[in-house]
Amino acid sequence: MLDHKLLSILVCPICKGELHYDKLRQELVCRADKLAYPVRDGIPVMLPDEARQVSLEEIEAL
Predict the structure, then answer these.
(1) Where are the beta strands (DSSP E) in the chain?
(2) What DSSP state is assigned to residue 17?
(3) Distance of CA 51 to CAs 1, 5, 7, 12, Å?
(4) How many Cα atoms are found within 13 Å in the side-chain-facing hemisphere of 44?
(5) Which of 1, 26, 33, 45 could hold 39 in an S-S bridge, CB 3.0 to 4.6 Å?
(6) What span, in angstroms and rounded, lies between the C-alpha atoms of 37 and 60?
(7) CA gap 58, 29 in Å, rounded
(8) What is the pLDDT of residue 28?
(9) Per-residue pLDDT averaged across 23-34, rounded?
(10) How far is CA 17 from CA 37, 41, in A?
(11) In the chain, pLDDT over 90 holds for what percent of residues?
């Protein structure tokens, strides 16, 4: 689980937009760029090369 303070200050490294935490998949999702950044052992990996593309259906489910 990520700390709420940390979640409130993290932004997408590409567009600087808001991130949404997907607890089930342990990812931080940027809806604008349609990217999901992994959270490994409670640490967000905010590298664009590590992000995966997110489908429109996944974004709508958040």
Answers:
(1) 20-22, 27-30, 35-40, 43-44, 52-53
(2) -
(3) 19, 22, 17, 11
(4) 26
(5) 26
(6) 17
(7) 10
(8) 96
(9) 95
(10) 13, 24
(11) 77
Q: Under a CB-based contact definition with an 8 Å cutoff, are residues 46 and 31 in contact?
A: no
Mean pLDDT in residue range 24-51: 96
Arithmetic mean of pLDDT over the chain: 93
Burial level of 27, CB count in 10 A (0-12/13-18/19+)?
buried
The H or E element spanning position 7 is helix 4-9
3 versus 18: the higher-pLDDT residue is: 18
